[in-house]
Amino acid sequence: MKANISHLRELQAIDLKISTLDKEIAAGSAEIDSRRASLDGHKEIIVQLTEKIAANDQRRRELEAELADEQVRIKDRQAKLMNVQTNREYQSILKETEDGKKVNTQREEAVVQLMEEIEALNAKIEEEAKICDEDEKMLAEDVAAVEKKISQFNTEKTKILKTRESKASAVTASLLKKYTAIRDKRNGLAIVPVTGGVCRGCFMNIPPQLYNDLMKEDKLISCPTCHRIMFHEAETEEV
Fold first, then answer.
1. Exposure winner among 56, 78, 85, 106, fewest CB in 10 A?
2. Distance of CA 203 to the CA centre of its chain
């Protein structure tokens, strides 16, 4: 039974190392994904700003066309003033002319405002473009570094997996199945030491008789609380 415990402890140490490597690989990939998402966010901002500029520019052209049309009408009305026959007609045309001038003044102000907005939006695009350029350069460097690191992790993991196959072959199929089931349920920790009558998996006291049986080391015993496989370890050996 001591041999089984020893094999399981070695196997768990290997599995924990593999789990650590998997987390490192996932963390590296997540970091790159996060940087790409940030870069894509800046690019999306540029797209939105560009669309807004296009909309403002379209509205500016419409206002300028309306300005020109109204100016033609104002000139026509001013020409008619020379030929009016009655004061009422004169006052009516004069009012229309003044109203047209007021509307055109508003249009001119709106055009100026749109042009100022377009200028501000273009400045913002330049700012975002600079950020994108810098982020793309940094991302390229980071991708190369992370890919190299992940490649190293994968190489190391391949070697460890070969060692795991050797260690797993020393364990019976039924025990390996039990170990795997517990490991999957208990966050990668299937076999734990017991020191001073306390399970180091869940840190709960185990019954005295069970503790006595554990010290005999003649059979596999599971923790009654967390159901991990237990082995006795003197308190002075605990790390």
1. 85
2. 36
In angstroms, the CA 11 to CA 160 distance is 11
Give the span between the Cα atoms of 130 and 114, in whole angstroms.
24
Shared domain check, 133 and 49: yes
What CATH code is carried by the domain that includes residue 47?
1.10.287.1490
Kindly state whether residue 66 falls inside one of the protein's structural domains. yes
Contact, 101 vs 74, CB < 8 A?
Answer: yes
How confident is residue 167, by pLDDT bands cut at 50, 70 and 90? confident
Confidence of residue 238 (pLDDT cuts 50, 70, 90): very low
**23, 32, 149, 162 from 27: Cα distances, Å:** 6, 9, 11, 24
- Residue 236, pLDDT score: 64
For residue range 104-120, list pLDDT tens digits in order.
Answer: 999 999 999 999 999 99
Contact indicator for 124, 49 with CB cutoff of 8 Å: yes
Q: How far apart are CA 99 and CA 85, in angstroms?
A: 21
Render pLDDT for 128-144 as a digit per residue (tens, 0 to 9): 999 999 999 988 988 88
